[in-house]
Amino acid sequence: MPDSDSASAIRFVNVSRHFGAVKAVDDINLDIEDGEFFTLLGPSGSGKTTSLRMVAGFERPTTGQIFLHGKDVSNLPPYERDVNTVFQDYALFPHMTVAENVGYGLMIKKTPKPERARRVQEILELVHLANLGERKPSQLSGGQRQRVALARALINRPRVLLLDEPLGALDLKLRQAMQIELKNIQQQVGITFVYVTHDQEEALTMSDRMAVFNLGKIEQVGTPAEIYERPATAFVAGFVGVSNLLQGDVAQAITGSPQTFAIRPEKIHLAETGTETPAGQCNAAGVIRDVIYLGMYTRYVVWLDAGAELTVVEQNLHTTSMDVHHLRGQRVQLSWNPAHNQVIGA
Ligand code: ATP
């Protein structure tokens, strides 16, 4: 018997899930530790939701095993697993008040009324809805409904909470505020959160670690900084943030090696042609082909003499849109620290 205290919260062992000819999840291995905020990130159709649903028990693996705290749950029904799920559409009961929605799980379990009321109040305070217990879901904003769904999932004190694009329906400002709040709540309750999103910024903001999915496979697992600074594959480099990929003759001209490498736009310094660059830097000369003014920063697209395009991002510390637009067509000198080059495997 594995020791359930020292085992991972969730373990996938050679897990696949096929739907006919579609390999929705294709032989993944993954360990998620107890108390982690772990994100499954990837484009639409990459297998994130199917992976989450297999942890919840709504789907069974075609092959492989899933362990929860050391116990093989591959063939257990959802209600025998110590997990709860928050769905994107919240699935609240419209005819019940907020407090009734949140206390529903405890009522089903026949938890005595005074304890139920106490725990409902406690959890509503956690999600900052203490004064709205008597409202109906229709009298709440999107963000408030989302918190009710979260409270309802947390009240049963699951060891693992699964969240499937829970902020997808909210506008950008509210989503960003809720990202920080969700992370705070996770830290307060200290349980494992597994979070599905296709939004790389959301994943970078919230996660302790993340797995990047592509075509049913996991391309890389790591902390946000590891994934961003050290993408292991061309797919990860392109999907998480903006990246320049240089290869073949162009790579050779810049680094002396034809190996493909990625360089992030914000690591590149843009200067007038002829500017001295410190020794040991990567250098490339080119012409500014496009200037995109974005308020806080400007994005430049530079066509290199070596025969490739590079995107460069510079903060607008001293410049305004008036200053930057006339730079189109100018010759420039690019330089960056070679330590930021990330060699991409074949
Ligand atoms: P999204 O972000 O769009 O939700 P996802 O990464 O969560 O995408 P999945 O929902 O896991 O992706 O789907 C992975 C693949 O499996 C897709 O090609 C999808 O069409 C297919 N798929 C998922 N569920 C089923 C099903 N019940 N029957 C047939 N194919 C399915």
Description:
It is a single chain. The protein is 28% helix and 31% strand. It has ten helices and 18 strands. The protein has a six-stranded mixed β-sheet, with helices on both faces. With 346 residues, it is α+β, with helices and mostly antiparallel strands. The mean pLDDT is 91. It has two domains: 8-239, Rossmann fold (3-Layer(aba) Sandwich); 244-343, RNA polymerase II/Efflux pump adaptor protein, barrel-sandwich hybrid domain (OB fold (Dihydrolipoamide Acetyltransferase, E2P)). It is elongated. The two termini are 40 Å apart. It has helices spanning 48-56, 98-108, 113-126, 142-154, 172-189, 200-206, 224-229, 234-239, 248-255, 321-325; strands at residues 10-19, 22-32, 37-41, 63-68, 71-72, 83-86, 160-164, 192-197, 209-214, 217-222, 244-246, 261-263, 269-272, 282-293, 297-304, 309-315, 331-336, 342-343. Residues 19, 22, 24, 42, 44-50, 198 line the site of adenosine-5'-triphosphate.
